[in-house]
Amino acid sequence: MAKFLKYLAAALFAIGAITSYVWWNYDAVVAMILRPQTASADGITEESFALVTPDGHHFALGDLPTALESFPAADRQTRPLVLFVHGFGPDPDGEFGLYTMGELGKGANADVIMFRWPSWISMTEFPVLNASAASERLIGLLRQVEELRGPSNALEKRPVMVVGHSMAGEVFRHIGEAEPALPAGLITRILFAVPETALPGHRLWMERLSFADEIFVFVNEDDPALQVTTTMYNTARLGRTLINLDGSAEPLAKNADYILLDPESWRHYFFVSGQRSEAIDQIFSDVLRNGKTALSNHYLRREPAENVFVVVGPGAETPGS
């Protein structure tokens, strides 16, 4: 029995040591497993893409008018529309995805439609080529928005906002680099929630998103998912920091405002109610609804760089607010 207990104690110690190592080196361990996609994205089909409404209904990507008609008709002509572009992961239109859309709708008092794209291959493959393919389809969707902006059409008087989460940043990087001929003012504002894309050089593609009146980038230094991709790419990620790994400050896009989250707000889905602080809850909804006027929120402090703001949180509001 004594010998058994000795081996059991050794086994428990080993398990504890391994668990502790994984806990403190989570990003390095996951980065050892996860790798950027290298196989061609040719295997995806048009059925891999869809428009999804918060009630779980799916529509073909080219059928935006029908998706819009599925919402209650009472205030359909003027109610804002949010296009939600999700990030990496399986079942983006599953229960949590639908809940997320519902929360965005409440925060913006808007209808919400998800642009679903093939954001999952496996636990070991990061779908970077799929993100490129998704950008081409998203440009097509934005062209539909342009058509529906015409006189007497469904979006003539409706503000259209975009919320892009995590790997949606990579999708929009490809859009910016493609420089699609989309009209100014097509999109009222884009909110990038911890965008998973490289920090270096992001200004170049972001300033080409001239079809958006306003752009906001929410940055979270403690985001666990972006800690993994920082390790995997050995490159600073836009959704995590504005400082490169060598300590140099990255030039910022002149057409964007950057909001640095409270360090305690470590959750990847910080913008979903119940996942964030009171300050972030208020700020994200306020920016989504009101754009630049929300930057005067008393939970925000302007940094020396004119387009950088820091969330100061409840109990640490700016003086005189």
Report on this model:
The chain is an alpha/beta fold and 321 residues long. It has a single domain (34-311), classed as Alpha/Beta hydrolase fold, catalytic domain (Rossmann fold, 3-Layer(aba) Sandwich), CATH 3.40.50.1820. It has nine helices and twelve strands. It has helices at 2-24, 26-33, 64-69, 95-108, 128-148, 168-178, 202-206, 224-233, 278-290; strands at 35-36, 50-52, 58-59, 81-85, 111-116, 125-126, 160-165, 187-193, 212-219, 256-260, 300-302, 308-311. A ten-stranded mixed sheet has the order 3-2-5-4-7-8-9-10-12-11, sandwiched between helices. The protein has a two-stranded parallel sheet with strand order 1-6. Helix 5 packs across helix 6. Residues 4-30 and 315-321 have low confidence and may be disordered.
